[in-house]
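Sanity check

After download, print the first record. It should look like this:
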Amino acid sequence: MIEIERVGEHEFVATNGRGASVRIGRKGQEGSFSPVELLVAAAAGCAMVTSETLILRRTGGDQLTAEADAVQSESGNEVISIPVTLSYDLSAVEDPEALEVVVRRAVEQFCTVTRTLKQSATSPLQLPMPLQTASEPL
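Expected structure tokens:
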């Protein structure tokens, strides 16, 4: 479970059960990630976590980076695509195309975030029930 606490005006901190935290704020706010940036980071991070062992074992290196960005609808209120680019050194790889096939297959089958995005996961919003006073009918 992730808990988010308001720490100031338009400032929040998300904390997981292992004690890690990340600052969340509005787009462009210094020192924080916007919610869309967190979504983009989750997609790129999931692709990296899923493919890390495959890539580093075959490249013999330890360099792996990712870039990602949110492509938003014309209204800007919807993310329609999150292209992720993984970068790593192919100089020691005999068959780069075979590595690409293996990495794509692994991410498509095991990356929970990108698989969830493809399925358009729902995110039901639960709001607190209004308190009823003794004079209000039940």
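If your output differs, re-run the checksum step. Summary of this record's structure: The chain has a mean pLDDT of 92.
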